[in-house]
Specification:
211 residues
């Protein structure tokens, strides 16, 4: 088998280095996704019966994409070292799929932000007006978000305490912005990987045709 030479050899090692960074990025995405899913505060607010699940859609996309990124990064390293067109082509296809997933998560985090927050607010306000375990739900929101609501029987500790509508908006706005930036940031890294993989794949093919 003929090996690539010159500038393409540099691309080969750049792709190998990229895949190592890509694997680390996958670990980061997976860690962020798991943190957002199992964060005690977020889970307590959204694990009650009837709570909206829209927020977790983007979180699950991040978790899935992060796990696949780690796997793809490993195979990308193998493809670069072995100069395998098959592995590099598969690597490119996987990057394209993950790219779509990360863009979807990023766009979801930014464009659906208001909808998700509105759903959580509606769930909170409906809990105030209902009976049953609604009191415990309201108390959970008050405790975690350190807020109070004049529509409930609880007294505000002081005048500076946030009302719960503002606290819900601030809390979930921060989480969704994290999802948006992580998704779009990793998607940008994907583009570099796709370019490197295609350049190296074409160089290997052309080199073999010459031979």
């Amino acid at each position: 088998m003929s090996k690539v030479q010159g500038g393409m050899k540099c691309v080969k090692y750049l792709l190998f280095f990229f895949n190592f960074i890509f694997w680390l990025s996958g670990s980061l995405v997976l860690a962020v996704g798991l943190w957002l899913r199992f964060d005690p505060n977020t889970s307590s607010l959204l694990n009650e019966d009837g709570a909206p699940e829209t927020f977790f859609i983007a979180v699950y996309i991040l978790i899935g994409a992060g796990g696949i990124m780690m796997l793809v990064g490993f195979f990308g390293c193998c493809g670069a070292v072995r100069e395998s067109q098959c592995l590099l082509g598969s690597f490119f296809a996987c990057l394209l799929v993950i790219f779509g997933a990360e863009v979807a998560a990023g766009v979801f985090g930014f464009l659906k932000k208001d909808k998700v927050i509105e759903e959580v607010k509606n769930f909170y306000h409906s809990s105030i007006s209902e009976s049953g375990n609604s009191t415990s739900i309201v108390n959970i929101y008050h405790k975690i978000l350190e807020c109070c609501d004049p529509n409930t029987n609880t007294e505000c500790p002081n005048a500076e305490t946030k009302d719960c509508t503002t606290a819900i908006n601030d809390f979930f706005n921060e989480k969704l912005i994290i999802i948006g930036y992580v998704g779009l940031g990793i998607a940008g890294v994907m583009i570099i990987g796709m370019i490197f993989s295609m350049v190296l794949c074409c160089a290997i093919r052309n080199n073999r045709e010459v031979i």
